[in-house]
Every structure is written in structure tokens, then in C-alpha cells.
Amino acid sequence: MVNKARKVEEVDQFISNLPKDIQNITVALRKIIFESSPELTEEFKWSMPNYSYNGLVCYLQTSKKHVNLGFHKGNELQEKDINKLLQGTGKTMRHIRIKKTEEIHPEAFTSLIKEAMALNKG
């Protein structure tokens, strides 16, 4: 059960305005993020949900057709990405694009979120 206090109202509002299928994916990803660690904090920044622990860890970016579970330091996660889920060619950011709920892999995502948090411990 996710602690209500960790959820930000702006994010609840943001999610409630999404198309139903995208909303379902976003809610599932948000749950995985919260369950990955009690230390992650949620913020609504840059028009999307962001999650931090000693700095930015990951974010949820929605579009009409998919949701990206993005990592601010994704370039540093690539060697830990055993399932080769990360995409993107930006300087540091990488993301996993999810088009339907069947593409959600809780274990793999949780592992990457924990690795991303570890990068901020340094």
C-alpha cells in the first residue's frame, strides 16, 4: 500500500486528465516507482511527475500513444539494463517507452529505479 502522503495532488490531477489507457499505464508505473523505495519523493515539475532521491531519479512523460518511464542519468544505467529496455540518445537521459500495460515489467523497472537511486548516493 502506497502512503497517501507521498502522492502529490498535482500529479493526481495530471493523471486524472489523461486518456484512460495512458492513465492505466501511468498509474501502474507510479505504483512501481513508489514501491521501489520509500525514500523517493514525488514532484510535479516540467509538466510531468518527477521522482527524486538526493537529486532527480526518474520521471513519467505521457503522450497520446505511450508513456515514457524516463531516467535523468539513464546513460549511466545502460550497463545495468540487462533487458535492454532503455532508449534514447540524449546526453544523459534515457527512457523506456510503454505503449500498453502488458509491456510493464515491474522487476526490471524496479531494478533500474534502484540503480538510478544508487547513482545519487555518491
Description:
With 122 residues, this protein is α+β, with helices and mostly antiparallel strands. It has one domain: Aspartate Aminotransferase, domain 1, CATH 3.90.1150. Helix content is 32%, strand content 22%. The protein has helices at residues 9-16, 20-36, 106-119, and strands at residues 41-45, 48-52, 56-62, 67-71, 94-98. It has a 5-stranded antiparallel beta sheet with strand order 1-2-3-4-5. Helix 2 (20-36) packs across helix 3 (106-119). It is globular and about 35 Å long. The model has no long low-confidence stretch (mean pLDDT 95).
Give a short synopsis of this structure:
By secondary structure, the protein is an alpha+beta fold. Helix content is 32%, strand content 22%.
Share in β-strands: 15-25%
| Low-confidence region ranges | none
What is the strand tally?
5
Distance between the termini: 29 Å
Query: Main beta sheet, described?
Result: 5 strands, antiparallel
Instruction: Give me the side-by-side strand order of the main sheet.
Output: 1-2-3-4-5
Q: What name is given to the CATH topology?
A: Aspartate Aminotransferase, domain 1
Gross morphology: globular
The number of distinct helices, counting runs of at least 4 residues, comes to 3
Kindly name the structural category.
Answer: alpha+beta
At the first level of CATH, the class is: Alpha Beta
Which range best describes the helical content: under 10%, 10-25%, 25-40%, 40-55%, 55-70% or over 70%?
25-40%
Radius of gyration: 13 Å
Average predicted confidence as pLDDT: 95
- State the order of secondary-structure elements, H for helix, E for strand: HHEEEEEH
How many separate domains? 1
The CATH architecture category equals Alpha-Beta Complex
